[in-house]
Amino acid sequence: MTANKDGNELTIPTNQAQLTPLTSGKDLLTGTSLRLTGLPVNLNTATLTDQNQLTDLGRTVQMTSGIWPITGELHLNANSSIELAETDYFSGIITWQLTTATPAVTSLK
């Protein structure tokens, strides 16, 4: 929460994302996470886990639209039953819930 110049509280919405479990071919990879960097939010980085749960990404710090180059680093838990090769591809779905940082303004009287 922050306050405007009149002392009224303003709620700046939080951005969220969730990651589905990843697959590699026919194999379901469990215990994976994806560390995102370059987010236009106050945290700049966030780690999504494969639990398909919303993760708080922080509040938007930029008040402009644009293109944000976000990079990701995949982290895998040890799993002796899955064999990975250099040519393997991973797939999953990230669902974003982004909001504007424009606070609601009360009407003039």
Can you walk through the features of this model?
With 109 residues, the protein is mainly beta. The strands form four sheets. The chain has a three-stranded antiparallel β-sheet with strand order 8-3-10, with no helix packed on it. A three-stranded antiparallel β-sheet has the order 7-6-9, with no helix packed on it. The protein is elongated. 0% of the residues lie in helices and 37% in strands. The mean pLDDT is 75.
Short descriptors:
109 residues; mainly beta; 3-stranded antiparallel sheet; 10 strands; elongated
Largest β-sheet summary: 3 strands, antiparallel
Across the major sheet, the strand order is 8-3-10
The amount of helix comes to under 10%
| C-alpha geometry | elongated
What integer is the average pLDDT? 75
Radius of gyration, whole Å: 18 Å
Ranges where pLDDT stays below 50 over 5 or more residues in a row are none
% residues in beta strands: 35-45%
Number of helices: 0
> What's the total number of strands?
10
Q: Based on helices, strands and strand pairing, what is the structural class? A: mainly beta
In whole angstroms, the N-to-C terminal distance is 24 Å
